[in-house]
Each structure stands twice: as C-alpha cells, then as structure tokens.
Amino acid sequence: MTNNQASVRIGRIDFTNVWPLFYYFPFSSFGSDLEVTQQVPSGLNRAMAEGRIDIGAISSFAYGENFDEYLVFPDMSVSAFGQVNSILLFHRKPLEELGDAKIALPTTSATSINLLKIILTKFYGLHPEYEYAAPELEPMMKNADAALLIGDHAIRASWEKNGYLVTDLATEWTRLTGQWMTFAVCTIRKQTVEQYPALVSRIYEAFLESKSKSLADPAALVRDAQKLIGGTEAYWQRYFSELCYEFGPKQWEGLSLYYQYAAELGFLKRNVPLQIWKDNSVVRVTE
C-alpha cells in the first residue's frame, strides 16, 4: 500500500466476548496500513453500514441488513451451541406468560434483540410491548416486566442476587431449533477486498493467529477480564471455553435459519445469503 492510499479501518466490539479475535492481533506489524476503532455493537454496525469501517466483528443481524455490501470471513465468529452466558433475559414471569409484558431492550444490540423477538413471536406466539433503555438492569426493570442485557452488562447482572428468572437466549434457541446461534460475524466490505486483496489476506491470517493463540492459553484473557469486569478465574475460564469462535457449515446453517425466521416475521426485508470470503476471489454463497 502506498502512502497516499487510505488505511483499512477495523472496528472492534467493546465486549469481552470478541477478545480472542483481537487479543494477540499484531497491530504494530501493519503500521499505518490499519486503523482500529472500538465501539459497542450498535455503533459499529452503523459505522460499517456508512462506510466508516472496512472490516468489523459486527452483529449478525447487521450483516443481514446490508449483505449486498459485505462478505464474511470464514472461521471467525461469536457463536454458541447452547449456553452463551452473555445474552440474557431477566424476567419476573415465565416466558410463556410475557404476552402482555413490557420488555426493556438495550440500545447496544441488534442480533440479540431480534433473536428475542423471534423466540417470543414464532415459538411462543407472543407480542409483548418493547421499549429501549440504557443497559442497566434495575433501572430497566423499574417500568418493565423483563429486560434484555448483552455482553459485559449481562455478565455483571448475572452475578447479582436480584431474584429474577434468567433465560439464556442461546440456550433457548438451541433447545427450540437444535441449531447453533451466531451473534457476531467478522465482515468485510466488498470494495475493500477489491482494493487491497493482499492486505486483506494478511489481516485474515492475523485474526486466525490471534484466535488460535488466545484459545490455546486463555490465562492472560482470564486475568484481564477479572481486572476489567470482576468475577472469578473459574468463571472466565468457563466463559471463554463455552463460546465458539469458529464459523463453518454448522454455524452457517444455524445463522441461515435465524435469517429465514427474521425475514418471515418482517424483521429483515428479504432473505439473506451468506457470502463467504475465500482467497479474495472465490465466494461461496449459501441460502
């Protein structure tokens, strides 16, 4: 890349659940070729859609909204088959009794909000009232019957003895569908692939190396998570081991079903094909 060309801009979700993809990423070795910005998922989704970010671990739902502009890196995601521990609905009554409930939603999410709506609408036949609020459990519950929290906000709230019922949305999705759930995908703008194919390959390999090194020995991640968020060493060891950072055919199948339901219910305007980046030139498309 020459000096008069713009850097590739990478967006990073400001939650611990994506740490393995970035923790050992060798940013310094890329010099001025890369810029990095850190935001909550909703902010990163907007920046990607507006072309202010070129590569990002964005919400899966955000890919579905703008897939015409994007490709998805294989082998990288934030997924779960069953428990995810950081996408949690706190509620006063059982799920099946939330039909006339008021549910507070965080302003930080997209995939999880629509996952909740899919679960309640398609599988329980419920149409509660939804409202948005800052992601703090007790203020959310003052005027609501249930509250959805994601990421580090959900983790902190799960440690409190607040007396609420707690539903892990990934557990519920897998119970109802038998499928994986993918909450975030590493997405790249098609224009960036066309402009900087060699650099994109280097970035992809660096992500994979960071993921591999992080998961092979998560001790450093665990220590930093304890310092930043709190909690025990055992909690964070279990947390990082239960999350899945792969993105292959099993995860594609689960995410495609999520997109199918989202389109059926009108949360997405159309069906979403998964367009998978490969060697900067070959794209595998799954419906």
TrEMBL record:
It catalyses: chorismate = 3-[(1-carboxyvinyl)-oxy]benzoate + H2O. Belongs to the MqnA/MqnD family. MqnA subfamily. InterPro entries: Menaquinone_biosynth (IPR003773), MqnA (IPR030868). It is an enzyme of class 4 (lyase). The keyword rRNA-binding does not apply. This is Chorismate dehydratase. Pathway: Quinol/quinone metabolism; menaquinone biosynthesis. Its EC number is 4.2.1.151. Keywords: Lyase, Menaquinone biosynthesis. GO terms for biological process: menaquinone biosynthetic process. Catalyzes the dehydration of chorismate into 3-[(1-carboxyvinyl)oxy]benzoate, a step in the biosynthesis of menaquinone (MK, vitamin K2). GO terms for molecular function: hydro-lyase activity. Gene3D superfamilies: Periplasmic binding protein-like II.
